[in-house]
Amino acid sequence: xxxxxxxxxxFNHLDEKSREIMKKTINHFESRGKKKLKEDYNERVWYxxxxxxxxxxxxxxxxxxxxxxxxxxxxxxWDTFRNCDFNEILGFYNLSYWYTWQVSILGLGPIWMSKNExxxxxxxxxxxxxDIFAFGLSEKTHGADLYSSDMSITPLxxxxxxxxxxxxxxxxxxxxxxxxxxxxxxxxxxxxFFVAEPGHENYDLVQNVVNWESYVxxxxxxxxxxxxxxxxxSGEEAxxxxxxxxxxxxxxxxxxxxGICTHAxxxxxxxxxxxxxxxxxxxxxxxxxQMFVDAYARLVAMKLFSQRASDYFRSASQDDRRYLLYNxxxxxxVPTQGEVVIDLIWNVIAAKGFEKDTYFHxxxxxxxALPKLEGTVHVNMALIIKFMSNYFFNPGExxxxxxxxxxxxxxxxxxxxxxxxxxxxxxHDYNIAYNSIDTPNVNIFKEQIGALKELLIHxxxxxxxxxxxxxxxxxxxxxxxxxxxxxxxxxxxxxxxxTDLLEQIFDFMIRDFSKYSLNLYSxxxxxxxxxxxxxxxxxxxxxxxxxxxxxxxxxxYKLKDLYEMNA
Length: 567
Ligand SMILES: Cc1cc2nc3c(=O)[nH]c(=O)nc-3n(C[C@H](O)[C@H](O)[C@H](O)COP(=O)(O)OP(=O)(O)OC[C@H]3O[C@@H](n4cnc5c(N)ncnc54)[C@H](O)[C@@H]3O)c2cc1C
Fold this sequence. Notes:
Blueprint: H1 16-43, H2 48-56, H3 59-64, H4 80-93, H5 95-112, H6 117-128, E1 133-136, E2 152-157, E3 160-171, E4 178-185, E5 191-196, E6 203-208, E7 216-227, E8 231-234, H7 236-273, E9 276-277, E10 280-281, H8 286-314, H9 323-349, H10 359-366, H11 377-385, H12 388-393, H13 430-434, H14 440-458, H15 463-467, H16 469-495, H17 499-521, H18 528-537, H19 545-556
Parallel strand pairs: 1-4, 2-4
Antiparallel strand pairs: 2-3, 3-7, 4-5, 5-8, 6-7, 9-10
Helix pairs in contact: 1-4, 4-5, 4-7, 5-7, 7-8, 7-9, 7-10, 8-9, 8-16, 8-17, 9-11, 11-16, 14-17, 14-18, 16-17, 17-18
The structure holds flavin-adenine dinucleotide.
The site of flavin-adenine dinucleotide has 19 residues, from strand 3 and helix 11.
């Protein structure tokens, strides 16, 4: 079973303590039940009881304290392998629960990356005490443009400063123990990260800018006193820790999306498979079967890709920065696929998706948030495109990366180094994966990759096109598909989840490749030669009704009544 089923999952892939954390968390949500979940969601009740549960079981302190800083807790470590499970569980039950964890992770990033040992030890104490954290990067008027940050910190001499300015969209900033705040030194113009505390009288919690269970704050620092002891990093180190923290946060976004889609799929499938119209079950209609097969294949692909990306993240080093392509894909590709999955389910369950008692009602809203967090889709695509040339035309030699499921502390995450030099990063040859598989749909997909490469070689985008994000977007989508498929094949070669599933995944991948190519074809400034290659990319997956029906019986219809949240 690839998809999470909280009522059946034994978490045997984890050690005993981690297994206990996952099971107790599931038990917490299941024993509260769906009625309470939805009441609190609909009434936007702050999740005090969840925070109490997390504190009592010391969950954040176990999962988010690097071993070196742990306070008498032999199980404390930052372990991306088990954190993926926790991400998925929180998303499965409620995105706002996931969000309080996510922004704590972001808030902890600049702290664990800093050289300020006093604050790090204090942070470990706060975690041990059950506290949450916040990441104050965004500002109201600047959005993605971090260079323009206005929050300032002015030196007063003797290691003292005063901070002034506002931050916007900052989760947990109502109750965090520390709010890692990004600013500029008003005298040197250098970037700086320091910690602020919401309880201070010069910390003004202006408002919650969203109408949600979570608190996404606007806060202002008015003559807020800071000393060297609260400074986390300055200059390039501060800038790098902002971006390197987001690299960590990006990875969680895809997992939240997987959790949401999985719960929504169980709920939607149960509804459709038990609903009888004109003497037939809804799941008997051929178009409904197609939608569910697509939703299932896309969701499984989201998870397989993200699992494999976790291997590259955990094994990364200064010499192997391939994660800088795969993480933005977990951030961008996976949650946009999540939106497609939710749309497919919604088209099946129709009016049911509006009902206040359903999980789906919140999934339909919350799934839209994920592509917009930790940089928008466009910002991440702009990043991904930087890797395209080396990926296709200048592969490097790497030892193959095995499944990274050890109980190690992922120290590299807090020691990622300078964020420059992206264009120089090399990847292993994607042909190794693709040439290892000889099945009909994968072979068609290989032809599409060949045609895309021909386009890049013989009808290379000119200077203006290379600067035009509108043009590059669809090229980037096609490149992303190639790397997505590559990691899924690697996962198949490691775990053999079945050729029928792989073929069904490549069925939608071929259709998506064709769609993106047609989009590129239709752009205003695509040349005649480029249009020719675009048409070569357009292909149709193999049609085999028997295989489709077998897939439906063996994989998709098995979802019926498999999981239902406790009332
Ligand atoms: C619910 C929620 C919670 C959040 N929590 C936090 C938090 O805890 N801490 C925090 O610091 N921030 C947080 N954020 C802020 C979030 O990271 C920002 O939304 C994000 O940085 C994008 O900024 P923006 O939405 O203002 O879009 P803008 O930056 O205003 O972008 C506008 C448009 O321009 C495009 N664009 C911008 N720059 C580029 C580029 N270089 N290349 C191509 N296209 C570009 C964007 O894609 C977008 O379509 C949160 C946001 C939300 C909605």
